[in-house]
Amino acid sequence: MNTFIITFSITAPGCKILPTKEGYILAKVTAYDLAKKQKEISVAEFFERNKHILGFGNQTRALITSVKEGVDNGLDACEEANILPDIYVEIKNREDGECKLIIEDNGPGVVKKQIPHIFGRLLYGSRFHAIRQSRGQQGIGISAVVLYGQLTTGKHAKITSKVEEDRPAVVTELAIDTNKNRAEVIARDTVHWAKPTGTRVEVSIIADYKRGKRFVYDYLQSTSIVNPHAQITYKEPDGAKHIFERTSEALPRKPAEIKPHPYGIELGTLIKLAKHTKSRKLSTFLKTEFSSMGDRTTNTAIDKANLEKNLDPKIMTREQFLALHKAFKKVKIMAPSTDCLSPIGETLIKRSLKYETQEISPEFIITSSRPPSVYSGNPFQVEVGLVYGGNLPREGAVRVMRFANRVPLLYQQGGCVTTSAISSIDWRRYGLDQTSGKGIPTGPAIFLTHISSTLIPYTSESKEAIADIPEIENEVKLAFRECARKVQHHIHKKVRRVKTREKFDLITRILPEIAKKSAYMLDKPVPSLDAVITKIMDVVWIEDLIEYVKVSRKPVQTTLIEESSQDHEGGTITKSKIMIVNYKCTPQKFNLYAVIPEDAIVGTAYPKPSKIANNYIKWNIGTIHPANKIDVNFELAGLEKGDFDENDLYIENINPAYVIGADKWEGD
Amino acid sequence: MNTFIITFSITAPGCKILPTKEGYILAKVTAYDLAKKQKEISVAEFFERNKHILGFGNQTRALITSVKEGVDNGLDACEEANILPDIYVEIKNREDGECKLIIEDNGPGVVKKQIPHIFGRLLYGSRFHAIRQSRGQQGIGISAVVLYGQLTTGKHAKITSKVEEDRPAVVTELAIDTNKNRAEVIARDTVHWAKPTGTRVEVSIIADYKRGKRFVYDYLQSTSIVNPHAQITYKEPDGAKHIFERTSEALPRKPAEIKPHPYGIELGTLIKLAKHTKSRKLSTFLKTEFSSMGDRTTNTAIDKANLEKNLDPKIMTREQFLALHKAFKKVKIMAPSTDCLSPIGETLIKRSLKYETQEISPEFIITSSRPPSVYSGNPFQVEVGLVYGGNLPREGAVRVMRFANRVPLLYQQGGCVTTSAISSIDWRRYGLDQTSGKGIPTGPAIFLTHISSTLIPYTSESKEAIADIPEIENEVKLAFRECARKVQHHIHKKVRRVKTREKFDLITRILPEIAKKSAYMLDKPVPSLDAVITKIMDVVWIEDLIEYVKVSRKPVQTTLIEESSQDHEGGTITKSKIMIVNYKCTPQKFNLYAVIPEDAIVGTAYPKPSKIANNYIKWNIGTIHPANKIDVNFELAGLEKGDFDENDLYIENINPAYVIGADKWEGD
Q1: H helices present in A209-345, as ranges
Q2: What is the DSSP secondary-structure string of A133-178?
Q3: Residue A563 is nearest to which of B12, B114, B125, comparing CB atoms?
Q4: Of A43-47, A365-369, B30-34, B529-533, the least confident
Q5: What distance in Å separates the CA atoms of residue A666 and residue A664, rounded to the nearest whole number?
Q6: A124 and B322 in contact by Cβ < 8 A?
Q7: How close, in Å, is residue A667 to chain B by CA atoms?
Q8: Among A463, A488, A513, which residue terminates a domain?
């Protein structure tokens, strides 16, 4: 009988064996049998088994994911408390593949009671419920590192946290009970810690340091470039220490926490919000729980939905919500405020790309930034950059650098929306190779994308790739198309300028020579050739020059209120000199625009500009008589040497065909 | 004061305002302030916000994901109860983008008490805790569809379940309270339902039927091909009905539930298992909680770890576990039993590929199957297939068809380990185009991969791509390399055969002509040319022919015990006729092998084979005298017309260079 049972349980596990008077019989497995197996799965257990979903699929990746989660957490904590981040990362590795990871920040620390939850429990945190741009959003990251450490080494994590300057730090040693998704505090102690406040996480993990080494360095370096306000110190196992210096004393403008935007919000979310609102009237509900909903927009939406302003949102029917939901789409609602997003900005994008291409002297770096947009009620913004030419490799696929909320994304490029967006553009029109006009092009270029959002739609909890949300894909495409157009424009402008310069050189060299010789032969004074040259040239010639001047950096104290850009004044001053020569036969009078990076601060400018906007300076240039010239100078602070290395000039109120060195101003 | 507060909360949300005697002051945000925001995130809330992680990132995908989760669930339920699946899928779509999805199975049903949990709660189910190959593994799929439906339409899901033939079905209408991750039962009723048992799920979702239409059809078709035991009926919104017929009355061999395998198990999992075991001795613990651990292996492992057999696993230290964990790697442990995996098999892979290339007449279809392997203690097996040539498009990337546990994967190809494995092979050596020897090649080919495992490491909960686990990547690479080698071999064999045939044709056509003419001229009888032809040909010539004969299908009853392949006997009989001619000058005697699909059943075979193995038939061919021939015939059942369309023949005990039409037998 025994044999029978064993054989059977292998070949037909869909059946069960029932004892009866006649012996054992086979019976079909029923819903009742299955019900016995149906049970809850703890989220920690789920991720313990599916650790690859969290980015711990192999030992190289596990190392980078761990460093990344630790550093992201530290940066978020500091920024949340308006502290300039000082991050310390140390890796100690042992022969047997065990790595000890130490990550320390100078953030506000974590209160004792919350330590077990923050570090020893998945899906717990402060950033999930706030609509605000931050690196961590899921309440999974750092506790996942602790979980992975425990799973692979069986060792406990050690968390040191100091929350007040005049009190000792608390050291907590913890494990995770995965069946319950709760931390077990193994030991607790207090120690003296020199830092005013901060958090230190020590976790032992199984990781491949040898293979991961390069990626950790790359990740920290990229992070440092797009987070110039952070100081990152990295100590390698062999004792080598790398310091990625803080290059800006100003915290980036802190993204504001916002309300959901009515565009793209799901019907279910709308119903849920209404269920939990404190407002008793539909109009108040819309005005208080949503962003961009002023009186007028609210009333229009309610009207279009055929609803009453005074309706109690709590007793509204599904049909009424549906009508309101549909009405949102028919009303023009202001885009969400840019305040909630913190883009990297043109300067840092250029700086990143420049860093990647040092000693390669690429032909040009072009950036493009899209206005903020919304998907499923979440604001987001796309910025892209492109380097071309120089000594970049002509063979092989274009390199793509991806960032999300100022975090470099290193893996899963193939599964990222930015890849599919780039792949869908026919790059052959822009001088790159591409098999049948699809896929990542090949050629001497690097592409960079940054997406900032209050909720980055990562394809998984490992936060390595962005999901193919149509709105995002579209914005990335638009940004790259704009970039590509700028490239074409840039090349066109360059070609035109080179041609005119050749003509100009010829005229200004040969004509005076002829004049001199003729005058000598005729024994007459050398005539003035200005008028003649002007007649031949027949253009307004604009040339420019950029210089960098180092000024002593004042020690800057970050105060609470003045978190403005005035701290930028130390460091490098970028001086731009523009020369305008009128080689036309008639006097010329026009407006000149110089486009400047949004994050630059305009210092002295001469002549006095008629307008200094966020991203340009405008001058009303007074009449320039034929063969006369005028100089325009301005200074920019807040940039590093090389950040601004080419003027982008535009003219207005003059036929653009008359001008070399500037294009028609199309409006800002 | 009000204005100040508002302005401030926008520009410096890292600060807070404190009332004092002197008025309001600004204070730094501390850990105490942050602690107020730190809270638990319900898993339903998490996925509601991150619905793209579950495969609901856009409306096209949402449709396919919903159908897929419903159908996978139905198939799993039926197979678990040994019922031949009958799946009904219906989509009704409305102008406004709302789709009503109805998915019905004839499985065992779900007991009333469990319905709210199974369908209205994420991370709940029966398949997570069992190590067994199944489609669903996460306890997320079907409840995610309900969640998405609620989120986008605000409507409740309706579940009908019948668990006993002589009782009515229970209809449950439910919603999900996402804050708690619990179902709310809105209404409950009983109805008459003609089915003996089964489950019917009705969910309204916002989806893009127009774009998704094609994918749903493709998904159901592919599913039907690799699950020939399932009958799938699909009713489109316009009333069109597609029936994907059941073509096999036999359930696939049901994968057995197994214990974890010691290779690749994480230290943490080992410790956890020991903590919860009922065994009091280390040796018993190893033998009862792990697969492939017999007495000898257990003892060797314990010895190598320097531990005692009688040690209580509950009181072992971390160091002792570590020693044991390390010892596992030093001991040769049998691979996990194949019983726990249910590969698709060569025949179904060929059939899938043939279906995709109908009317294209590709040059050949080659498959390759790897032996089972292990990653992190989870057994897995890789099978691949390749179609080449014919009218397949020569431009554009090779098409890749991916399957996991018999489920077609439609999205996230770029993020899948199969893609990176294929990309890392230099396909230029095998006649395909590939930019710098990397990436998905271009050319007239289709690749197919199937991975079966007790735990498919999907990159996310949407189960669309497989994570880059090194062990899996390696197996996929090996499988494709083997495939590629077979391709080369195939081409080589073909070329050789064509050449010899030309020679043969020439000889057998021209020599007799000359002989006839000469005989006529000399008025002598026409001589026998066999000896001459033999001398010139100097080979053993093997030719074969395949015929299909339709036989009337007996109505088959699936019984509980006889879930064997005998049910296959109805349907098509594949007849293979092999002709062997000895064109050598000496008598020949050798062994012949015909490779057959593992899932085919050998019927009559003449002469009598000396061996019928799982995947080949062997004959000891008796002496064939020069210019004599011998016929070898065999029949196969259990295949459809075209499944077996070419003999793969091998010879033994004869110089392979003498033989055309068969290769050297390298052993099985």
Answers
A1: 209-226, 267-276, 282-289, 295-304, 318-330
A2: --S--SS-HHHHHHHHHHHHH-PPEEEEEE-STTSPEEEEEEEEET
A3: B12
A4: B529-533
A5: 6
A6: no
A7: 29
A8: A488
ipTM above 0.85, yes or no: no
CA distance B45 to chain A (A): 10
Of B187, B212, B244, the position where a domain reaches its end is B244
CB proximity list for A230: less than 8 A, separation 6 or greater: A75, A78, A84, A85, A86, A87, A223, A224, A244, A246
The answer to whether residues A472 and A347 belong to one domain is: yes
Type and span of the H or E element at A5: helix A2-11
Asked whether residue B655 is assigned to any structural domain, the reply reads: yes
* Nearest C-alpha in B relative to A412: B415
Mutation to test the A interface, candidates B33, B36, B46, B98, most A Cβ within 10 Å: B46
Placement of tokens 């947009």 in the chain = A373
Nearest CA in chain A to B320: A154
Query: DSSP secondary-structure letter at A53?
Result: G
Substitution target from B5, B7, B48, B49 for chain A, most A beta carbons within 10 A: B49
Judging contacts by C-beta atoms under 8 Å, the chain B residues touching residue A413 are: 414
Q: Which domain holds residue B546?
A: 531-558+565-664
pLDDT bucket at B23, cuts 50 / 70 / 90: low
User: In total, how many domains does chain B have?
Assistant: 5
Which residue of B128, B317, B564 is the best one to mutate when testing the A interface, meaning the one whose CB has the most A CBs within 10 A? B128
Cβ–Cβ of B81/A49 closer than 8 Å? Answer: no
Residues A219 and A99 in one domain: yes
Do the domain assignments include residue B622? yes
Residues B156, B28 within the same domain: no
Tens of pLDDT along B601-623? 898 999 999 999 988 999 999 99
Alpha-carbon gap: B319 to the closest alpha carbon of chain A (Å)? 9
Give the pTM. 0.82
Query: Which residues, 6+ apart, have CB-to-CB distance to B20 below 8 Å?
Result: none
CATH of the domain at B591: 2.60.40.290
Contacts of A151 in chain B (CB under 8 A): 266-269
Name the residue of chain A whose CA is nearest to B62's CA.
A469
Answer yes or no: are the C-beta atoms of B168 and B60 closer than 8 Å. no
pLDDT in tens, B257-315: 888 889 878 899 999 999 989 999 999 999 999 988 999 999 999 999 999 999 999 99
Mean pLDDT for the stretch of residues B412-432: 89
Asked if the structure places residue A507 within a domain, the reply is no
Interior CA angle at B325 toward B321 and B329, to 5°? Answer: 160
Which residues of chain A have a CB within 8 Å of the CB of B10?
256, 339
What residues of A are in contact with residue B96 (Cβ under 8 Å)? Answer: 326
| Residue B173 domain-assigned (yes or no) | yes
DSSP B343: -
Alpha helix positions (H), B429-469: none
Residue B253: closest CA among B648, B603, B614: B614
Q: Are residues B572 and B453 in the same domain?
A: no
